[in-house]
Specification:
By secondary structure, the protein is of the alpha/beta class. 33% of the residues lie in helices and 26% in strands. It is globular and about 70 Å long.
Length: 504
């Protein structure tokens, strides 16, 4: 674990002070007298499990939600934030996890959208162009201001969001899960930008479930739980286990519940799998009761390999066998019938129908099992789902709750439940804990251990190296579509060794 190299001595300048913030919704006390303070040139990590109240607090700061009571001061002056424009005028910029950009408009147009620089009724595009170049130079990146945002990478779009905040003279910038879809190199670049913002006296509130990042970039951590402020302390005073205990409200002895396993015979065997340059001559096997970790940089071919096995993409060549039987997988239906399931990297767009209930999501791949002569046996379906709700500890108010209203961890459990009902023998987890809080992560890890103990073959694809080393029995490393290394003595391996293989 690396500790932030930034100074832990806070500036005397208090940029932001939120006092006694309360918010209630029908049946939910979302925020219970929350206090938050942010100093100039500081990175404050805002931490807590999903549902802790972080998003509600940030939405109040950004003017998207009106608090029931409490006060907000910026630079010692009380401010009334009744909408996003009030937040902008107060010098507050919010960069949400899902960017607020118009893909068809250029970077320049997005930066000045709603605040166009005009002369005699005409937009002064030249002036905006120069201003945008200046903003990008200040951040330390080169982006053509006239490039449509839809053609920019995720990291570049994030830079446009930061430039937009700076163009509004923001002195307080909130970043919500900024690294969720970035490569390790892009994360490092983001940290360089954040450190430069600090030097200019800008205060940053940084929300992330990745504790390694928190210890690298933050000065202090503020922890919330169940709508309450648990505590705010300098990172140098908090070891990892103490921080986790503050977040989840209980002691977790080991962040990764590694179990000693003796895998059995090979179950899934993949040989010479190919698809253009994305997947090149990939061969491996997964044994009974084994968790096989696959890692590598974004674009290394990890997800593409999983999609070929699951039939989501067509393979050009290669064979797949399960328990000695050759499989002709041409589409996901073939894979599902064979007993192979995929928990996708993006569960919201590919794993769930968000506007349908959790019961309906559970039933979708299992309709034939719960129907007769075209009619669904509702009691049988509900009974089966209730069993998984109890077994997987899925937190839902009722079976008709919409999938979009669940936390990331509970959404992942619903996806897992539907595949367990299919009696899948091979489970491929692609980024199983992305966007999931530390407490829910632990529960997912325990479920993976239980599945392995029951004889399932588990493939875990992850870009989080601590997770890979903490949960895998073996690790395969991919680079440019190929498997370039295998780690068999995982407990003795280091992140540096894995990364050396990953970069080729």
């Amino acid at each position: 674990m690396s500790v932030s190299q930034s100074s832990t001595t806070l500036s005397d300048t208090l940029l932001l002070c939120m006092k006694g913030i309360e918010k209630r919704y029908p049946g939910v006390h979302a925020l219970k007298g929350i206090d938050l303070d942010l100093h100039a040139g500081e990175v404050l990590a805002l931490l807590g499990e999903n549902g802790a109240g972080k998003s509600t607090l940030i939405k109040i700061l950004g003017g998207a939600v009106i608090p029931d009571c409490g006060t907000i001061s910026v630079d010692g002056n009380p401010v009334s934030i009744a909408g996003p424009l009030d937040a902008q005028r107060a010098g507050i910029g919010i960069i949400y996890q899902e960017f607020n950009l118009v893909p068809a408009l250029s970077a320049r147009e997005n930066i000045f959208l709603g605040r166009e620089r005009s002369r005699l009724g005409f937009v002064n595009a030249g002036d905006e162009h120069q201003k945008a170049l200046g903003l990008f130079k200040r951040i330390g990146v080169e982006i053509d201001p006239e490039t449509p945002c839809g053609q920019l990478s995720v990291a570049q779009q994030q830079v446009v969001e930061i430039a937009k905040a700076l163009s509004q003279d923001a002195r307080i910038i909130v970043m919500d899960e900024p690294s969720a879809t970035l490569t390790p190199q892009e994360v490092e670049r983001l940290f360089v930008i954040i450190r430069d913002l600090k030097k200019h006296g800008i205060g940053v509130i940084y929300i992330s479930h990745r504790l390694d990042e928190i210890y690298t970039i933050a000065d202090r951590a503020m922890v919330m739980r169940d709508g309450q402020h648990i505590g705010t302390r300098p990172l140098v005073e908090l070891d990892r286990s103490t921080l986790i205990e503050m977040m989840v409200g209980r002691s977790i002895d080991h962040e990764f519940p590694r179990e000693t396993r003796t895998p059995g015979n090979a179950r899934l065997v993949v040989k010479n799998l190919n698809r253009g340059t994305r997947v090149r001559d990939v061969s491996f096997e997964v044994r009974r009761g084994e968790i096989l970790g696959i890692t590598g940089l974004v674009g290394s071919g990890r997800t593409e390999t999983a999609r070929l096995i699951f039939g989501a993409d067509s393979r050009e060549s290669g064979t797949i066998t399960l328990d000695g039987q050759s499989l002709d997988i041409r589409n996901p239906s073939d894979a599902i019938r064979a007993g192979i399931c995929l928990l996708t990297e993006d569960r919201k767009s590919e794993g769930l129908v968000l506007k349908q209930s959790v019961r309906e999501n559970f039933a979708l791949p299992n309709l034939r099992r719960f129907s007769s002569f075209g009619f669904i046996r509702d009691k049988e379906e509900s009974g089966a789902f209730a069993g998984y709700v109890a077994q997987l500890k899925i937190k839902i108010p009722d079976h008709e709750a919409l999938a979009q209203n669940l936390s990331g961890g509970n959404q992942q459990k619903v996806v897992l439940a539907k595949w367990l009902q299919r009696h899948s023998e091979v489970l491929i987890f692609d980024e199983p804990t992305r966007g999931i809080d530390v407490g829910a992560k632990f529960e997912i890890y325990l479920l993976m251990n239980a599945l392995a103990a029951s004889g399932k073959a588990i493939v875990m694809i992850s870009s989080e190296l601590p997770e890979v080393l903490g949960m895998s029995d073996r690790v395969l490393v991919m680079h440019e579509g190929r498997i370039v290394g295998e780690v068999t003595d995982v407990p003795a391996a280091t992140q540096q060794q894995i990364m050396a293989l990953a970069v080729g």
